Amino acid sequence: MKLRLDFSKVLVVLVCGVVLSTGVAVAQQARGRAGILRVRSFVGVGNKNLVRTPEYRSSVARSANRAQMWQCLAISYDTAPEWIDEITVRYYAMSLTKEAGAVAYTVFKTSVRYADIKAGTKHLGVAYLHPKAIDRYGDVVAVAVEILNQGEVIAERSEIKGKSIPQDWWKNATVMDSPSVKTKEGYLLSKGDSPFALVNIDDYEFAR
Question: Fewer C-beta within 10 Å: the chain N or C terminus?
Answer without folding.
Answer: N
